Amino acid sequence: MKKPHAEDLVGPWAEQKLDALENYLAAYHKVMKYQKFKLIYIDAFAGAGWSKIRTSEQQEAELGFPLDSDQETAQEKFIAGSPVRALTTGNGFDQYYFFDADKRRTARLRQLKQEHLDKEVYVKDEDANLGVQKLARRFHESPLARGVAFLDPYGPHLHWATVEALAKTRKVDVIINFPLAMAINRLITRNIDIPRNWVNLLDKCFGTRQWYDLAYEIHRDLFGNEQSWKRDDTESRLLQLYHRRLENCFGNTVNPSLVRNTKGAPLYYLMWASSNSRGKAIASHIMKAGHRIERLKPK
Questions:
Q1: What confidence score (pLDDT) does residue 10 get?
Q2: Quick one: which of 60, 168, 205, 293 has the most CB atoms within 10 Å?
């Protein structure tokens, strides 16, 4: 899946999460319009600003099955990514921080910055996790700072330490694209012998090894031999784990919203969290992006 991202190609379903972000930002600005806060927008894994919808051939190669015929019409369509939407929605923010480790993408973001010279834009070509964590630690320097962070990783690359750093500010609402079905669940193989580098990725993503015990069921037979297998409900268990950790960290969440591909298969979940309970009303906009998960299992 690295090639499509390197070429700034996205599936048609990407519009759903981006429309949700735009709706949220528009509502956020209305609430903040008459308040004297310094508003900050943070975009981790920001991309290049504009993306092209994958052609049917590219999507079929990635997904491994043919697409619906109605996708043929989207072959040359470009969509505005999260940086463009943040810059052009509502009253705008006082500062914008765009992070991406790909220098080619950040070069395009700097071109976008030149189109918005009236705005204070910072483009950082560095590891998004380290960059956002460093920025979060500076929030205490500005008592009036408030913000929104859009955390949209290319895979299971958003570290829990990054989410936790934003929660500690008590000033930032986060919108997370959690690629549970699209990437994370695929790393948890049926065979319990997961490659070590995958285990490390998942540990950093969840901030705990609890995902392992939730994903696998382990028994011993009468001879003491250990048998293990991946649970059928692994995905729902991991969704509950991540959502619960978000709630414990921030204090306020809403039920996730599931986004599916053109075949109806689940891809990722949009999640929202904040230390401010008033944001729950705004967060309802996020749920318009896809199929809302109405109920999670009790804690």
A1: 56
A2: 205
CA-nearest of 12, 173, 21, 131 to 86 is 21
Return the ∠ at Cα 52 (arms to 47 and 56), rounded to 5°.
130
Q: Is 8 left (phi over 0), alpha (psi -120 to 50) or beta?
A: left
Residues 6+ apart with CB under 8 A from 110: 123
Residue 247 vs residues 42, 197, 205: alpha-carbon distances, Å: 20, 28, 16
The residue among 118, 122, 116 whose CA lies nearest residue 98 is 122
CA–CA dist 284, 236 (Å, integer): 22
Among the residue ranges 53-62, 107-116, 274-283, the one predicted with the least confidence is 53-62
Strands (E), 9-165: 9-10, 38-44, 50-53, 78-80, 95-99, 121-124, 145-151
Interstrand relation of 121-124 and 145-151 (parallel, antiparallel or unpaired): unpaired
Is the distance from CB of 279 to CB of 173 less than 8 angstroms?
A: yes
User: What DSSP string runs through 238-258?
Assistant: HHHHHHHHHHHHHSEE---EE
What is the spatial distance between Cα 127 and Cα 100, in angstroms, rounded to a whole number? 7
Per-residue DSSP letter, 81 = -
Q: What is the pTM of this model?
A: 0.84
Q: How does strand 95-99 pair with strand 38-44?
A: parallel
Instruction: Give the tokens for residue 37.
Output: 């806060």
